[in-house]
Design brief:
The protein is an alpha/beta fold and 345 residues long. The chain contains 10 helices and 13 strands.
C-alpha cells in the first residue's frame, strides 16, 4: 500500500532518472545480513545453493552497485550487468519508457556501463562483506571487431567474482547481437566461452530471446547440451509488439513487463519439452505475482527472475512472491519448491 501511495511521485520523474534515484537510495541502505535459506523454497541449481527461487534480473544494477544488498528486499539472488569489456555510453537519451497502461517497459539502453575492469574492482570490495548469491551478466561492446573474443574476455575478467556468469546474446539493442543465437555462431561462441572458463567450475548460463522459431529453439537446446552449459535463462525482452495501449507503444527497443508474459512462458515450455530435466531453466518475463511465478516453475523453471514488475509493484515484490509460493505449495500438498519444478511439463 505504501508504494502505491508514492508511485505517482516516482512516476513524476522520467523512467531513467527514477531508476538512478532508486539505485542511489539502495546504496544508502546498510548491507543486510545473509539471507537464511527457506526450507520450503531453497534448492541447489548448477551447484549453487539458492535460499529462495526469486532473483533480480540483469539490467537493474548494471554496474554492481547494489546487487549485494538485494537479498534485503527478499531476493534469493541478483544478477548484475550487462558488463562489456570496455566502457560504453549506450544509446542516446531518451531510451527507457514506461508503458503505464500496459504495465510494461520498453528499453533501448544499449549495454551502457563503465566496463568490466571498473566493475570488477567495485564488486570485489562488496563481495567481501556479504554472502549473497551474485550472478554477472556479460556482453560484447557495440563496436567490437570480434564479439566472441569480448565474451571470452568477460569470462576471464568476471569469473573470479561471480557465483555464475550469464552469456547475454539476446539483447535487441546491440545491432547484430542476436545473430549469435544462430547454430554455427553459437557453437563458436560457446566453445570460446567454455575454453576461457578452463578448469574453473563457475557455472555458465546462457540468456536467450523469446523471439525464436521452433528450429532456433532446437538448435539452442542442442548447443547448450553439446557445450555443457549449466543453465538456460528464458527469456530476454521481445522485439514483437502485441496490442498495446500506451502512447510509447511505438518506441523501438525491447519490450518487457506484463505483455511479455505469455510469449516468455511459451518459450520456456518449448525448451522444457526438448530438454526435459537435463538442463536447469530460469524463467523470466512478465512475472508480477506468486501465481505467475508458480506457473513458470510448474512449467519447468527451477528459478525465476523479475525486474520490470518492480516498477509497478514496488521494491518488496520478491518477499510477497516468496510468501505466496509457500502458500501455493501448501495448497498442492508439496513440501519443497523442487517438487513443483516441471510438474505440468
Amino acid at each position: 500500500m505504501s508504494y502505491r501511495l508514492i508511485r505517482p511521485l516516482v512516476f513524476a520523474f522520467d523512467a531513467e532518472r527514477a531508476h538512478h534515484l532508486s539505485i542511489a537510495l539502495l546504496r544508502m541502505m546498510p548491507t543486510p545480513p545473509a539471507l537464511q535459506p527457506d526450507p520450503m523454497l531453497a534448492q541447489t541449481v548448477a551447484g549453487i545453493a539458492f535460499p529462495n527461487p526469486v532473483g533480480l534480473a540483469a539490467g537493474y544494477d548494471k554496474e554492481g552497485l547494489v546487487a549485494h544488498k538485494m537479498h534485503g528486499l527478499g531476493f534469493g539472488f541478483a544478477e548484475l550487468g550487462t558488463l562489456t569489456p570496455l566502457p560504453q555510453p549506450g544509446n542516446p537519451l531518451p531510451r527507457l519508457f514506461r508503458l503505464e497502461e500496459d504495465r510494461a517497459v520498453i528499453n533501448r539502453m544499449g549495454f551502457n556501463n563503465g566496463g568490466q575492469a571498473a566493475a570488477a574492482e567495485r564488486v570485489a570490495k562488496r563481495r567481501r562483506n556479504g554472502s549473497a548469491v551474485i550472478g554477472i551478466n556479460i556482453g560484447a561492446n557495440k563496436d567490437a571487431t570480434d564479439r566472441i573474443a569480448d565474451y571470452a574476455t568477460g569470462v576471464t575478467c568476471m569469473m573470479p567474482l561471480a557465483d555464475y556468469l550469464t552469456v547475454n546474446i539476446s539483447s535487441p539493442n546491440t545491432p547484430g547481437l542476436r545473430a549469435l543465437q544462430d547454430r554455427a555462431a553459437l557453437d563458436q561462441l560457446l566453445g570460446a566461452v567454455m575454453a576461457a572458463r578452463g578448469s574453473d567450475r563457475t557455472p555458465i548460463f546462457l540468456k536467450v530471446a523469446p523471439d525464436l522459431e521452433p528450429a532456433d529453439v532446437e538448435d539452442i537446446a542442442a548447443a547448450c547440451l553439446d557445450h555443457h552449459i549449466d543453465a538456460l535463462i528464458v527469456s530476454n525482452t521481445t522485439i514483437s509488439r502485441p496490442p498495446l495501449r500506451s502512447a510509447h507503444a511505438g518506441e523501438t527497443g525491447g519490450l518487457s513487463g506484463a505483455p511479455l508474459h505469455d510469449l516468455s512462458l511459451e518459450r520456456l515450455r518449448d525448451f522444457r519439452r526438448l530438454l526435459g530435466a537435463r538442463l536447469p531453466l530460469i524463467g523470466v518475463g512478465g512475472i508480477s505475482d506468486a501465481e505467475q511465478a508458480y506457473a513458470r516453475i510448474r512449467a519447468g523453471a527451477s528459478l525465476i527472475q523479475l525486474y520490470s514488475a518492480l516498477v509497478y509493484e514496488g521494491p518488496y515484490l520478491a518477499k510477497r512472491i516468496n510468501a505466496g509460493l509457500k502458500t501455493l505449495l501448501q495448497r498442492d500438498g508439496l513440501r519443497t519448491i523442487s517438487q513443483a519444478v516441471g510438474i505440468d511439463a
